[in-house]
Amino acid sequence: NLDLDNIQGDIMIGMRKKNELFFFFGISNTTHFKAKLKSTILPLVTNTAQLLDVAQQPQTALNIAFTQTGLNALNVRDSLNDSLFSGGQLQDVNNLGDPGTKNWVPVFVGTNIHGVILLASDSERNMEITLASLKSQLGGCITEIYELQGAARPGNQEGHEHFGYLDGISNPAVEGFQSPHPGQAIVPTGEILVGENGDSVSRPPWAKGGSFLVFRQLKQLVPEFNKFLADNPIRRQGLTQQEGSDLLGARMIGRWKSGAPVFLAPWKDDPALGADPQRNNDFTYAAPGQISGNLTDQSRCPFSAHIRKTRPRGDLGLPEKNSHHIVRGGIPYGPEVTPLEAFTHTTKTERGLAFVSYQSNIANGFQFLQQKWADNNKFIHAGVGFDPIIGSAQGAHRVVTGLDPTGLSRSITLTTDFVVSRGGEYFFSPSLSAISDTLSA
Ligand code: N7H
Which of 37, 142, 297, 363 fits as disulfide partner to 440, beta carbons 3.0 to 4.6 Å? Predict the structure, then answer.
C-alpha cells in the first residue's frame, strides 16, 4: 500500500539509465525558486510507478533532493530529526575515515549546496538538453555550483564499475513493494523510507515517503589497483599467475568480475553463476547444514571482503534482522583507463564511482557501514582488518587478513587507498506531495 506515484523513482529501484548527471545548486531567490519548483521542476520529477512501467518511462528521468541548508533556504523549519543530515557531510568527515578534507572537491567543503538535481537518460544529448532548459528557466533563482556526469562503461563493461566488477547485484527488497530474489535481504519499508513502518524516529508528517540520499564522489585508482593484483598473485598449484591475481581481486570484493560470489565459486570465476539472478546472491556465509554464518571460516570468502564487510548476512544471525541496509544507486564517472595510464600504473585523469545510497537514517545506514564496519579493523572480530576496497584509516596504511586462501592468517598491508573519497553531501529526497505542499509553498 505504498503510494508509488508519490515516491521519487531513484530511491527504491534506481533510474537505471546509461547516463546520469548530478547538478548541485544553491538557492539565491527563495520566492522565485519556490514558484519554479512547483511549476517547472515538479512536473518533471519521475516517480516510482513511472519507472516501473516501460510505457510511462520518460526519456530523461529527474529526481531532486535538498540539504539541511537548502530546507533552511526554503524556510522549512521542521526538523527531520537526523543529526547527520542537519550537520551536513562536512561535519561528519572525521567519522568516515577520510584524511580530513584534503582530497575533497572544494565545493563539498562548506554548506553552500542547497540541493541536487539527478538527471538520467539513455541519451546523453537529451539529458543535456533537459539540463540546459532547466538552467535557463531557473537562472534567476539558483546558483550553479557543480556538476558530475556519470555513464555506464562501454561495451561488455556496461554495469561494471571501473575496477571491472559487475555492480548493482545486491540491493535489499523493500517489504510490501518487492518480492525478493533468493539471498536478497528483505527490509521493513521504514528502513529505507522515512515515516514508514519500521522507522522509529519522530518525523514531520510531510517527510513520509522520503529518504535520505548520501552522495559521495569516490575516486578509484584503477591502474594502481591492477598493479597491486599483478604484483601479489595468490600462489597455488594449478593457478596461473593471472588466475592468482584475479583470485586476489575477487577475494577483496567478495565477487568475481562477472558478479559470481567467491563464497559459491571459491577458485575460479563462473560467468553463468554471475549472470543468474536466481543464484548469484543466494548465500549467507553459512556452511551447508548451518543456520547462521560461520564466524570461524573464511576459506570461501574473507571476513574483510567488501561485500561481507558491508553486509555480513548470516554472520550477524539469520533471519537478517539488523537495521543496517542501504539501497545503492550511483554510476561510474570519468574516462576509461588509457594505455599510458595502464603502462605507467598511474592514474592521470580522475575516474570513480558517483556513489548514492538511500536510507531512512544516515547513522544506521551509510555512516554505519563505512565507520563501524568497513573502517573498523576489528569487525567482524579482532584480526580481520579493513575492507580493502572502501575501508579507510585517515590515509594510514591498512592491514587486511583473510585474502590469501592458502594462508588465511597471513596479513597484507595496503599502502595505497585504491578508493579515495573526494567528499560529498547529505540530502533528503522528498515525496512529490512534500515538494508541492510544503517545500514550494
Ligand atoms: Fe560497494 N566494487 O567494485 O568494489 N560494491 N563499492 N560500497 N557495496 C558492491 O553485490 C564498490 C561502497 C556496498 O548485499 C559490489 O551488488 C566500489 C560504499 C554494499 O552483499 C561491488 C566502491 C558502500 C554492497 C562494489 C564501493 C558500499 C556492495 C558487488 C567505491 C557503503 C552489497 C555488487 C568506489 C558504505 C553487499 C553487488 C551485499 C556491493 C564495489 C563503495 C556498500 C563490485 C568500487 C561507500 C552494501
Answer: 37
Do 104 and 421 form a contact (C-beta atoms < 8 A)?
yes
Residues framing ligand 1 (Cβ under 6 A): 161, 163, 165, 167-170, 216, 218, 220, 253, 255, 306-307, 310-311, 326, 328, 352-353, 355, 366, 369-370, 389-390, 419
Q: Which of 68-77, 102-111, 291-300, 355-364 has the lowest mean pLDDT?
A: 291-300
Contact 43, 191 (CB under 8 A): no
- In this prediction, residue 207 has a pLDDT band, given cuts at 50, 70 and 90, of very high
Report which protein residue has its CA nearest ligand 1's atom 28.
307
Best residue for ligand 1 mutational test, from 160, 215, 220, 306 (most atoms within 8 Å of Cβ): 306
Reported as a single tens digit per residue, the pLDDT across 319-345 is 999 999 999 999 999 999 999 999 999
Nearest to 218 by CA among 104, 91, 100: 104
Q: Is 167 a catalytic residue?
A: yes
Q: 3-state class of 78 per DSSP? A: coil
SS3 35: helix
The per-residue pLDDT of the chain, averaged, comes to: 97
CA torsion through residues 1, 429, 389, 387, sign: negative
